Amino acid sequence: MLREALPVEYEDNLCLSANLNEWYLQVSFSHLHPLIVIGLARTIPIPASVAQYLTANEINLHSTLGCHTINSNTGCYAYRATQWLDTELTRERFMEILHRCMGEAERGYKKILKKQL
Question: pTM to 2 decimals?
């Protein structure tokens, strides 16, 4: 179902990866628990400023869905969310989860770029 819903560019036994709306997307599932993990990443100008790191920390204090981070080694902003799969994962449910994650990642990314020196 995910292969039909996404423009998958890479997959292995652990995850699917795609480029989607200027985001690098990685979707994986836990082998131990009914969990889906969605990671989104996008480049930022480097080096990141102290204000940008502080902004990421501030965003995390108010984020209920996932975690925002900056990696100055790779020059990217990333957002990662984990969702319990308490019901069957349909295409509609997956797209709902994905769009919610992408919205949260967009908000975080824009806030962090505003703090650029």
Answer: 0.86
